[in-house]
Amino acid sequence: MRAPIGTFDHATPAPDRLDDLTAPVAAAVRAWSGSVPAEQILYVDTDPRWADTAVFVEHYGRDLIERSANCVVVAGKRGGETALAACVVLSTTRADVNGLVRRRLAARKASFAPMDTATGETGMEYGGITPIGLPENWPVLVDAAVVDLPYVLVGSGRRQGKLLVPGKAFAELPGAVVLEGLGVA
Length: 185
Prior knowledge:
InterPro entries: YbaK/aa-tRNA-synt-asso_dom_sf, YbaK/aa-tRNA-synth-assoc-dom. This protein has one domain: YbaK protein, CATH 3.90.960.10. It has six helices and eleven strands. It has helices spanning 23-30, 53-60, 97-104, 115-122, 144-147, 167-170; strands spanning 11-13, 42-44, 69-78, 81-90, 94-95, 109-112, 140-143, 152-155, 162-165, 176-179, 183-184. β8 and β9 form a beta hairpin. The longest helix is centred in the first third of the chain and has 8 residues, at 23-30. The chain starts with 10 loop residues before the first strand and ends with a strand.
């Protein structure tokens, strides 16, 4: 199957590539429900050596810079308690962690979660974290610009391989909250 974005050699429906996904991502794909069929979530092979965004788009297609999203894990702290959440923003922006995210989490302080926390709590590899398969009790804050795209490139849970996901599917993830202005330049 031809990939809807990028210059990937081949795209495969994610349900046919469960062995290439981390356990939480594979479980989420297996249990997928919603208006977007699981078969429309596509897996593409990628080389982890080209994981850096600038190198990645040079190799797999310049159009991907505007159609890629990053999923970052954020820790919000208030009164000795820490709450984890995910933010999904276009790769051309950054999550407004100290403004919109902090207020949304009702936190006194918000920051990117340490790498060990992000990987340990998600069961995913650093540099490949995806919003599909995150703990169900986490808020998943999604920039409205991500939801508006026909297809978005995100991590697959591993550094090797990526998922191509219809934008509207992000709004249907467990815990998803779509926010205008979450991604800032």
